[in-house]
TrEMBL record:
This is adenosine deaminase. The keyword Chaperone does not apply. Its cofactor is Zn(2+). GO terms for biological process: adenosine catabolic process; hypoxanthine salvage; inosine biosynthetic process. It comes from Pontimonas salivibrio.
């Protein structure tokens, strides 16, 4: 299925795009899960690819982040061997490329993939092998894609320093940044202070899940304790705003945290469908309630992402199409959002310039 810009025959899939927030264990192909589960003797809730894909989407529509995260027990169960991780990473990049992504960051938590004897370093190398295979094939076909790993520490596991050291060991072989994931409420970034201190001392970029399942204090901790350059989701930044409506006129007063995020250009890694599924936005759980448009019009560095393509039954093109349909965006808006993402990507200045040139050239073709 393709998604077109209204009033045109332009497929959003054909436009170059940037993906900053996309979890490896949330982007498996259903058939791959079935294949790997069969090899490992793992029972699944469904054994038909279409039915399994539907099961993931249905289970993820609870409105609770805690319930949403339970679906990952299934995906991580088939991600415990080097061969499995390599296949999944290769297919992940292939699927990004098929959707028009020219720069993607793949976040995942190696500590969740050690049940069958892999070491942390083995796991990172296995994922990188799959990335390298896909990138080489894409380049051999005449295209180019920038891909980096984001190594996540599970915020509830209290081993952030070890995972930060892991990320640093692989910074010259594919790892582009560090993240913390898992249950946000009750597990502030300050719990991983030693990890963030080490990463800051080594000038290593950090993004932090914040402002999804918890509010402004979580965002504040990500900025102060984590020195976050980006916020994973970050949509609850609106809780630090007072919005006044008088007819068609809207006045917005920003609090100190929201002002800091706006003035410093700290990117918000929003994921519209996921934000609805996990209850990160308004009670009606409809896209019209999503603060994306308000944030975009206020000048925040908003980006659009999938979070977990399997659980949300989505692609980056589909997420953009949803915003287009809801808020009336056009190609200029989509390009502006992609340039936000390019500026926020954890790549070199030279690569960033190349990515932006590729974005502009791709949109000029339409």
């Amino acid at each position: 299925m393709t998604h077109t810009l209204p009033g045109t025959d332009i497929a959003i899939e054909s436009l170059p795009k940037i993906s900053l927030h996309d979890h490896l264990d949330g982007g498996l192909r259903p058939q791959t899960i079935i294949d790997l589960a069969g090899e490992e003797g793992i029972e699944l809730p469904e054994t038909d690819a279409d039915a399994l894909g539907k099961w993931f989407a249905d289970q993820s529509n609870s409105g609770s982040l805690v319930e949403y995260l339970k679906t990952f027990d299934v995906t991580t169960s088939v991600m415990q061997t080097a061969a499995g991780l390599t296949r999944i990473a290769r297919e992940f990049v292939e699927d990004l490329h098929a959707d028009g992504v020219i720069c993607g960051e793949i976040r995942w938590a190696p500590e969740q993939h050690l049940n069958k004897g892999l070491s942390l370093d083995d796991a990172v190398r296995a994922v990188q092998a799959g990335i390298d295979e896909a990138v080489s094939a894409i380049e051999a076909a005449g295209d180019k894609i920038w891909i980096g790993q984001l190594i996540s520490a599970m915020r509830q596991a209290d081993n952030g320093l070890e995972i930060a050291q892991l990320a640093l060991r692989h910074r010259d072989s594919g790892v582009a940044g560090f993240d913390i994931a898992g249950p946000e409420a009750g597990f502030p970034p300050s719990r991983l202070q030693d990890a963030f201190d080490l990463l800051a001392s080594e000038f290593f970029p950090v993004t932090v899940h914040a402002g999804e399942a918890d509010g402004v204090d979580s965002i504040k901790s990500a900025l102060i304790d984590g020195r976050a350059l980006r916020l994973g989701h970050g949509v609850r930044i609106v809780e630090d705003m007072n919005v006044h409506e008088d007819g068609d006129a809207i006045t917005v007063e920003l609090g100190t945290v929201a002002t800091w995020v706006l003035d410093r250009g700290i990117a918000l890694e929003t994921s519209p469908s996921s934000n609805i599924q996990t209850g990160a936005i308004g009670p009606k759980r409809v896209l019209a309630e999503h603060p994306f448009d308000l944030l975009y019009r206020l000048g925040f560095s908003v980006t659009v992402n999938t979070d977990n393509r399997l659980m949300s039954d989505t692609t980056l093109s589909k997420e953009l199409a949803l915003l287009v349909d809801t808020f009336g965006y056009d190609a200029d808006d989509l390009l502006a959002i992609q340039i936000n993402a390019a500026h926020a990507a954890f790549v070199s200045r030279a690569d960033k310039d190349d990515i932006i040139d590729t974005l502009i050239a791709g949109f000029e073709k339409i």
